[in-house]
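Running co-folding for zinc ion.
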Amino acid sequence: MHRREFMLMLAAGTVGALASCSASQKTASTPTPAAEQRIAALPTSSPTAPRPPSPTPSRSPLWLQDGPPELPAPEGPGPLITGLPDGVGNVVAITIDDGADASVIDAYLDFAADSGVRLTFFVTGYYPGWIDCKDKMLPLVESGQVQLGNHTWTHPGLTELTESGIISELSQCESLLNTHFGVTGTPFVRPPFGYRNDWTDSVCAQLGYTTQAMWYGSFGDSGLLTQEVLLGEANTWLQAEHIVLGHANAPTVTHLYGQIIDILRERALRTVTLDDVYFGPGHSRSV
Ligand SMILES: [Zn+2]
């Protein structure tokens, strides 16, 4: 090696690296003008030079998003929503109802933590799983990644009830949300089975539940169904500006989180809560 070349490499701090790499040493011993340029362009380094930032810690293979996506300025929800507002962007609201199986609620919370997926749960208050999962739920609720809405206390069709019956059903669920999670579910109520009319809407509104949160597409999993059928529904309905309905009632969906993430990634979809869209990220529902 010529002294000039050696000095050039010394200046470039590459001697050590070349010494451990015979192929590079051979190439470097007969530098072409282009190679010299490349060597000269290398930054000098020393043992005390700052190291480049270490790579991001490995994420769960399910990871999809950090926080809410960019959204237009919120305009507040109307009295009845079946989908997200036109022009809201390439986002979908995944809304999960009931909670008959605590292990499914628990699995959804793990899914949210592993993926960053934002979820709105419509809580049916008398299922014990909501309180069983409280410790895991609370940090996600406090950060706004998970939103809780009202899906009544015992899941009756509101159109079958008296005024006081509707008030009792909504109030008991609201009380659970207040007491155990420190939040209100208002203004979003999801009427069980989607049964509602102008009169039931007006009774709900007396309690601050001024928005009937319906949906546009469902996983179809209020009861047990096969993975193939559920995935078919997910594939059909996970689309921009949809409000998609799922249930925390049966374990099928818990085996499909990877596939659901694949669908969202293929479509470049990001997830939102209803609060993200209608009130803006950071909206407080503390009581
Ligand atoms: Zn339901």
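Result summary
The chain has two domains: 3-41, 80-278.
The pocket of zinc ion is lined by residues 97-98, 151, 155, 192 (CB under 6 Å).
Job closed.
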